[in-house]
């Protein structure tokens, strides 16, 4: 059996000390040099072990202060299901309410943004065609817990009351309900989730370690005519949120 990499061994040792209450939530860990000396490894090995535990929510790094045992945090369950599309409330707010947190979001919309190549391919339009781009920070008790960037073809909604996703009489109603308001029936969505490391910007906004694990979901909504009407990149920190898919069964 291959020998366990040194940083994983150190990560297990740090977990053991936390589990045995050598260090309590909120305690500052000894320096990397001290831990390395105790465990017979270099500081870089300790750093990798700590970064792994930070990405898992066991530890937290504080700039200029050190590394601390993280306070226990209940992971938010985010349910993905077509059955949750509704006009009378936000699924995200329902997810937050289920764990006793207040859900809200902040957004910024830019109209007439040229579509980059990957977005154009997902929307079935030409590269450079104009889109409405909206960036979101979804908040739990005022702290960002999820990010999203949404793209809609400008020619689809131009001149209508729903051209701005977060403006006008249908603000905040979601893609399905907004499209229905202009006579477009959204029949289904396709989601492609994959794990990756957070970018520096994402980590800064979400309050997680740079390169921490996130789930990146590429979602595209389609009309009943088969046309893509919206595509989005959704970023969820793995340490703070779990994603559950509800699959309706037709009888």
Task: Describe what you observe in this structure.
The structure is a single chain. By secondary structure, the protein is α+β, with helices and mostly antiparallel strands. The chain has two domains: 6-69, Orthogonal Bundle (Arc Repressor Mutant, subunit A); 76-245, Chorismate lyase. The chain is 27% helix and 34% strand. It contains eight helices and ten strands. The chain has helices at residues 6-19, 32-39, 43-55, 91-98, 117-123, 154-157, 174-181, 200-206, and strands at residues 59-62, 66-69, 76-80, 103-114, 130-140, 143-153, 186-197, 213-223, 228-237, 241-245. A six-stranded antiparallel sheet has the order 4-5-6-9-8-7. Helix 1 (6-19) crosses helix 3 (43-55) and helix 2 packs across helix 3 (43-55). The longest helix has 14 residues, at 6-19. It is elongated, with a radius of gyration of 22 Å. The mean pLDDT is 89.
